Amino acid sequence: MKKIKKEELYSIPNCMGYFRILLIPVFCFLYLHAEDRSGYYLAAGVILVSYITDFLDGQVARRFHMITEFGKLLDPVADKLTHGAIALCLAFRYEAMRYLFVLMVFKEGFMAVMGLINLRHGRKLDGAKWFGKFCTGSLFILLFLLVIWPEMPSAWADTLIGVVTVILFLTLCLYIPEFSRMIRSWDKKQDLPEDGSDRCEEKRKRI
Fold first, then answer.
1. What is the pLDDT of residues 9-54, one digit of tens each?
2. In this structure, which topology does domain 1-92 adopt according to CATH?
3. In this predicted structure, what is the pLDDT of residue 188?
4. Most C-beta atoms within 10 A of its C-beta, which of 82, 117, 153, 174?
5. Looking at the predicted structure, is the pLDDT value of residue 202 above 60?
6. DSSP conformation letters of 28-93
């Protein structure tokens, strides 16, 4: 495994990632102690700051060539922790959110385990898939709406949570064949000659 350099740990994009993680307890405190609409607005403001920071760290990393392997790991971790914390706080208010939260934990646990297993065999997902991005976007919109609009009718809230739960479940199902293809590629890698040359090239040498 490539050693992470100190300057990579403290690059501007990565510091933004740390900042987003530090915002998580701030949001939790504000939301759980909110007593009126202004309190919920403050909590929603923290979410917006986190989202803007998430957008900017990617722009800075690409613009100033600061993309690192550690940054590629930190960014999604900060996303998942933020979404998980918001969903957990909302679960105290909306019963349906508890089921969505459990599914979120299961999905991310599955993704993490399969990602680590494939990484040990030199395989990893080639960037986020469109359905993964759609799921993340849908989840963010849901969480933000429920935070900034605490008076939302319970029927509406339950319906929106149900829709996003279905989207999350379908996204998990779509990732299963992606990981399955990666696992099948292990054998192809093992079939290659140890010197890395192509099998066709090896056949030509025998002729």
1. 889 999 999 999 999 999 999 999 999 999 999 999 999 999 999 9
2. Four Helix Bundle (Hemerythrin (Met), subunit A) (1.20.120)
3. 65
4. 82
5. no
6. HHHHHT--SHHHHHHHHHHHHHHHHHHHHHHHHHHHTT---HHHHHHHHHHHHHHHHHHHHHHHTT
Give just the sign of the alpha carbon dihedral 83, 84, 88, 94: positive
Start and end residues for every CATH 1.20.120.1760 domain found in the chain: 1-92
Tell if the pTM clears 0.90, that is, is over it. Answer: no
Two tokens, residue 20:
């987003």
How does pLDDT run across 79-95, given as a tens digit for each residue?
999 999 999 999 999 99
| Contact present, 98 and 81 (Cβ < 8 Å) | no
Q: What is the number of other CB atoms lying within 10 angstroms of the CB of residue 40?
A: 19
DSSP string spanning 147-189?
A: HH-TT--HHHHHHHHHHHHHHHHHHHHHHHHHHHHHHHHHHHH
Q: Does the pLDDT at position 106 exceed 90?
A: yes
